[in-house]
Amino acid sequence: MSIARILALKGAEVFTTTPEQKLKEVAAELARRGIGALVVIDRWGEVAGVVSETDILAAIGARGADALEDSVANHMGRNFRFLTEKDTVDDAMETMTIERRRHLPVLRDGHIVGLVSIGDVVKYRIDTIEAERLALHQYIATA
């Protein structure tokens, strides 16, 4: 199954921030929206990275509450593999595992078209397993 299918099911809305925004503002936005990460867009409109709740906690753990005044640029994840809509769920799981990332931006022609989280991948896998279970149950019941 492709990443495009996950985006079709969950929606492709992506919430963003800038490298200059303060971590406290990002934390408030994450809490307000009930999400775990924002895609960081630079002044040229390109993906510069992802800032997650984990990044914020790591910053606070290292520097205390003063870290909340730091800019996103100092703490965001960067230089990691992006997904495309043609990538598979297995590709996403492998990348998330190897790179220890819970959120991966999805790009088309260099532009952000979605964000896939580990939760999205797990939900897809559970739904797939449940559909297979039901199909097997129906097959056995009619045999």
From TrEMBL:
The keyword Signal does not apply. Pfam families: CBS (PF00571). Residues 8-68, 76-132 form the CBS domain. SUPFAM superfamilies: CBS-domain pair. Gene3D superfamilies: CBS-domain. Keywords: CBS domain. CDD domains: CBS_pair_bac_euk. InterPro entries: CBS_dom, CBS_dom_sf, CBSX3_CBS_dom, Diverse_CBS-Domain. The keyword Membrane does not apply. PANTHER family: CBS DOMAIN-CONTAINING PROTEIN (PTHR43080:SF2), CBS DOMAIN-CONTAINING PROTEIN CBSX3, MITOCHONDRIAL (PTHR43080). This is Inosine-5-monophosphate dehydrogenase. The lineage of its organism: Bacteria, Pseudomonadati, Pseudomonadota, Alphaproteobacteria, Hyphomicrobiales.
